[in-house]
């Protein structure tokens, strides 16, 4: 199993909208691609009083690296652009790939 993890820091003013959009629009669109078996949406527990925004992790589970690469090449650019268009500079993200051993 391959875990595709996207960590996103979201500005405070858009958090509720972002969560609603992720749950009702973006994640369902990603799952409709058929590339992932399951997903999880997680919130980072952070007790740092100087932390800015809230950090979330969206984890998608693919059966192989080939399936993940197909998603990244065929679907991710458009879906990522929709996120950028909607939230512009209000979110910062990075992606990691992990293999279950």
What does this structure look like?
Strands 2-3-1-4 form a 4-stranded antiparallel sheet. The model has no long low-confidence stretch (mean pLDDT 96). The chain has helices at 15-32, 65-74, 76-87; strands at residues 2-10, 38-43, 54-62, 91-99. By secondary structure, it is an alpha+beta fold. Helix content is 40%, strand content 33%.
Strand and helix order: EHEEHHE
Secondary structure class reads: alpha+beta
Low-confidence stretches: none
Q: Whole-Å distance between the termini? A: 8 Å
Q: Give Rg in angstroms.
A: 14 Å
Tell me, rounded to a whole number, the average pLDDT: 96
Number of helices: 3
Tell me about the largest β-sheet: 4 strands, antiparallel
How much helical structure, as a percent, in the residues? 25-40%
Shape: globular
Strand order of the largest sheet: 2-3-1-4
Strand content: 25-35%
State the total count of DSSP E strands.
Answer: 4
Oligomer: single chain
Q: Any key phrases for this structure?
A:
alpha+beta; single chain; four-stranded antiparallel sheet; 3 helices; 101 residues; 33% strand
